[in-house]
Amino acid sequence: MSPEPAPETDLANEIECESNDLVAEYGGERAALRAVLHDFAVLLADADRSVSRGSVRRSTSARREW
After folding, report:
1. Mean pLDDT, to the nearest integer, of 42-61?
2. Residue 22: is its pLDDT beyond 90?
3. What is the dihedral of CA 9, 42, 46, 14, to 10 degrees?
């Protein structure tokens, strides 16, 4: 039985392959980076909309009391 590769190696390899696919899909590194940043901004905006404002105020107030 051969030893299994370390999970970090698998993750690094997966990220490398995904990066190569993304660059190929968008035709260049700059365009791929723009697409990733756009998707990240959309995810952040979605997460921001899904957070309860009351919850944010309570957690902020609790931190200020320290």
Report:
1. 75
2. yes
3. -10
- Give the whole-angstrom CA distance, residue 19 versus residue 29: 9
Ramachandran area for residue 33 (φ above 0: left; ψ -120 to 50: alpha; else beta): alpha
CA dist 32 and 25 (Å) reads: 8
Cβ contacts of residue 11 below 8 Å, gap of 6+? Answer: none
Distance CA 56, CA 2 (A): 50
Question: What are the DSSP E strand ranges found in the chain?
Answer: none
pLDDT at 66 > cutoff 60? no
Element holding 1 (H helix, E strand): none
> CA 35: distance to chain centroid?
12
Q: Distance between CA 66 and CA 54 in Å, rounded? A: 19
pLDDT for residue 21 is more than 60: yes
